[in-house]
Amino acid sequence: MKNQLICYSVGPLLYCPANSTNIVSSIVNEKLGKQFSLALCLEDTIRDDRVAEAEEILIASLRKLEQARAASSFFIPRIFIRVRRDEQIASLLSRSGSASQLITGFILPKFSADNADAYIRAAVRANESSPEPVYIMPIFESPSIIHLKERADILYTMKEKLDRVSDLVLNVRVGGNDLCHRFGFRRHSNESIHSIRPVADILSDIVTVFGMDYVVSGPVWEYYNGENWDTGLRKELEEDRLCGFIGKTVIHPKQIDLVNAAYRVSRRDLEDAKSILNWDSGYHSLVSGSTAGERMNEFKTHSNWAAKILLLSQAYGVR
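The chain above was modelled as a monomer; its predicted structure follows.
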């Protein structure tokens, strides 16, 4: 199990087109809050004939942010760039100059057998010339994982590849909308992706393969206004957490607070987690009643859960 706090601290990952010209102002003026990460997207949100232009705007934004930070103090989120091709990693780091220190890592869309090796090589080379870690977050959304006959082999092959650079893998992410698209599905604001069984089974398999060793983040929720948008998001977040997902991709600032609230741990869970992790090795039993006297705590079967609760409390807080 990943035990690095930074892996749990990605939190709500706000997607923004890389050619946005007002994102720097929003960050400097803290309009988006102080508990989120930012994804500057060069892939699906950018027209194919505007990628070069979007790259220039992205680099300019990083330089403006660097200059603003030198002049005043404000919250800077972890910044990730969603690329289209592996060669963009080295190019963007080089062209950003000293502002590249603001880049926490890169998001690798449609991660598959066709591009995994090239992306991993690019990540390794980036880290060879960087004083700070340059992380990667692969997204599993490729149509290749839909087919049952090949899915297990593909996922385990991808895990073997990522395990070679596991220290660089901050999160494993899932593309819920891309997978739904292949079937022609779209959930309404009162429906959860976990009820769409063909897609939910794929998400479950991803957690099964990666969830014991990596933090797996939940799929995007595309509603941010109208009836049920917030109650629907809360419902899906509850199911996300129960199914093993931590954090979520968001597409509107209004979603950020709801994601953070969903992953705050309860006082009851935190007290039980501390009790389990501080178990007296000289105690005659490895099982006891919980601190509130309402459930069983067992050292051997609850220690991984307890370690995760402690990390979540540090990343999101306690409710």
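The mean pLDDT is 95.
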